[in-house]
Fold this sequence. Notes:
The chain is of the alpha/beta class. The chain has a domain at 231-370: Glutaredoxin, CATH 3.40.30.10. Helices cover 46% and strands 11% of the residues. It contains 13 helices and 8 strands. It has helices spanning 6-32, 35-42, 46-52, 56-72, 103-115, 132-137, 140-165, 174-193, 200-209, 270-276, 295-313, 331-335, 365-370; strands spanning 231-236, 243-244, 249-250, 257-263, 282-288, 322-326, 346-352, 355-361. The strands form 2 sheets. The protein has a 6-stranded mixed sheet with strand order 1-8-7-4-5-6. Strands 2-3 form a two-stranded antiparallel ribbon. The longest helix has 27 residues, at 6-32. It is globular, with a radius of gyration of 21 Å. The protein starts with 5 loop residues before the first helix and ends with a helix. Mean pLDDT is 88; it is low at 75-95.
Amino acid sequence: MGRLTRAELQARxxxxxxxxxxDEFAERGFRDAKxxxxxDRAGLTRGAVYSNFPGKRAxxxxxxxxxxxxEAGPDGARRPSPASGETPATGTADAGTPxxxxxxxxxAAFARAWVSxxxxxxxxxxxxxxxxxxxxxxxxxxxxxxxxLMKLNAIVLGLALERxxxxxxxxxxxxxxxxxxxxxxxxxxxxxxxxxxxxxFDIVAACAALADLDLGDRWDPPHLPFVPRARxxxxxxxxxxxVDAVRGEPVPLTRDGVVAVLGLHRLEAVEEAVRATPPGGxxxxxxxxxxxxxxxxxxxxxxAGLRACLRQVLPAPAWPCLRVVHxxxxxxxxxxxxxxxxxGTEAAIRVRSGRVVARxxxxxxxxxxxxxxx
Length: 374
């Protein structure tokens, strides 16, 4: 066998660190885990660990993200929790749940998928995720992006519920989705803190009942008189290959619609593009961050958790015309003309027939690009 290239050696070392960290976190928990112990388990130096990950928390988020993405899986089949004793699910997730035809049924199925993933014990492998929320709470630099990631999850789920209502419906479902996700995340926390406290069937019934609530939710177009209109453009659009984090499959970014480059503090702005884009146009949210080492894995983790449930639930017609792409390297952003990114980035382009026909930057860019004159 020939010598490994530098890139191959880095990839192998990174995999060894992740495997060692997973064992260390599972046995000792995040707080008591030691970077030196992880390095020893991996057969590497402490410096080699830090050359791949900026800190212990970044490594922790990366471990959880990898597990969540494998569970969600590009093939769509749900992986059973090691603590659940379940056998693997069969079939493809793209087919969704055949019986789901209404928002109420979808919320019930989504909640069932969620609670089926909850650990039944707080030791062994189930212990891995117990320190996630304390680490989110520990630092405002993590809390704000996490809040926006949850907003994005609610927008995706809400748009799916709206499509089940029918294209003629004008009812916004994002606030119901927010309430359902709040309920389910609370159930996850109680499963860690007080195993056996909540009855899973009650959680499912409560989430289903949310569909009948009138929360006064409606979409009002943003009033942005101080935001300049999108600038006309006529440039070729040649984006790199990308994967949709919601569906777990390659996404063709060349389709007509809006590509929004959003930092992790501005994710909710994508709804402005979705609401303003003409029927038939697609919207892609390209997630960028000024801290890809730590916040990039947090974004992957949060979206993968949503995907793991959605792919079991949604029939094909209910998938929203919203794609989400992780762009830690900034390659898609650069192709869109956004050379420097941060967590506050908001920029958008309008694509038609393989060309950029309009672009906008700054607060209100998503709405401006989506509502630009064709």
